[in-house]
Amino acid sequence: MKFIAKLRTMLSALVALGVTLLLTGCFQLEQVINVKPDGSGTIVMSAVLTKEALKQIEEMSKAGGEKGKTPIDEMTDPAKAEEQAKKLGEGVKFVKAEKIKNDTGEGAKLTFSFTD
Description:
Blueprint: H1 2-23, E1 27-35, E2 41-50, H2 51-63, H3 71-75, H4 78-88, E3 93-101, E4 105-114
Antiparallel strand pairs: 1-2, 2-4, 3-4
């Protein structure tokens, strides 16, 4: 039983590594921090996956028998965005999540606010 658990763990790690290597150069990230004179402001984080990357992820999900949320749904999940806000620092609050689409691909734009 322990052997099977270790085998599953190793297989998961190999799949994650393979996905990482396949997706290299397949996404764009942007982070913009706007600060007002009073020290408050916003953090806007955008991530866009190329059409090719989305197609690869979809094919791997089908092959693995996984169904459910798309990567874009995961990126715009309010609960995950709240967790991200906590990681960004004390006083950072999640404001909104938007799905975005452009000529390159699809992704998400998350907006956070801070007071000082």
